[in-house]
Amino acid sequence: MGSEKITENTTTTAPAKDAPALVKKIGRTTYIVRIHFSKTSKETMSDKIKRMLKNEIQQM
């Protein structure tokens, strides 16, 4: 552990109003993940999950 180099990259953007965020603390690091959805997307959440499952099965 003594020779490990730790770097920090941060990007600051204005969060959308009422944007959901997931907060996870691992050790001394807190991760904040903001979630957003495309307004121009033509794929529903159900369609996306089905597509992801189909791709996962094909890889097996």
Model description:
By secondary structure, the chain is α+β, with helices and mostly antiparallel strands. 25% of the residues lie in helices and 20% in strands. The protein has one helix spanning 45-59, and strands spanning 21-26, 29-34. A hairpin with a 2-residue loop joins strand 1 and strand 2 (29-34). It starts with 20 loop residues before the first strand and ends with a helix.
Short description:
The chain is of the alpha+beta class and 60 residues long. It contains one helix and two strands. It has one helix spanning 45-59, and strands at 21-26, 29-34.
List the helices and strands and how they pair.
Layout (H helix, E strand, L loop, with lengths): L20 E6 L2 E6 L10 H15 L1
Antiparallel strand pairs: 1-2
Helix share, percent: 25-40%
Low-confidence stretches: none
Rg, nearest Å: 18 Å
Identify the overall geometry: flat
Distance between the termini: 36 Å
Mean pLDDT metric: 80
Order of helices and strands: EEH
Quaternary state of the chains: single chain
Strand order, biggest sheet? 1-2
Largest sheet, in brief, is: 2 strands, antiparallel
Helix and strand content put the structural class at: alpha+beta
**How much beta, percentage-wise?**
15-25%
Number of extended strands? 2
Number of helices: 1
